[in-house]
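Input sequence (171 aa), recorded before submission:
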Amino acid sequence: MPAANALASDLGLLQAGWQTGTAYMVAHLLISAQHPDLQYSHIPPRHAVDFVGLAVVPSSKSLLAAAHAEGSQRASSDALLTLTEGLFDLIGNKRFDEIELLLKSIDPALVAPEISVTILRATCSHKHLLASWSNYLEKTRRDLRKRGLPSDQVLIGLGGETERRATLTTV
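Predicted structure, token format:
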């Protein structure tokens, strides 16, 4: 395909909505200036161009495997960022069924404590949609205590602190 034809083909993409109308005019001027003898016509598209995101939404299985791959002692920053991004992708795509499956499947004792806390913090604002969220919070609280970590400080803001303090003071 000659270069002039390729430019004319690209111009069709510009007009179809791949770029703004201003870019179309600039491209038209550039083509006309560089190729004054070029004859072309534009055929407008009949249908709108839809853009489709081809990114793969993670599954609970892939997030669970990644969490277990980190081990039970310490999680790397990269792993935490990947987990957070995966959870936000699931939330953004309203895949609460996958998050629910993750909450039911993951054992806080088998993953690094940072993993469990990341899951809770990333999903906290949607806990009303996740039946297993409160149960996972309590499992994580127990696991943090077994590890000798200050669970009330680590989990502050996730709920249950006031109720737990009231229970402790009345006992």
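Checked by second reader. Residues 60-170 form one domain.
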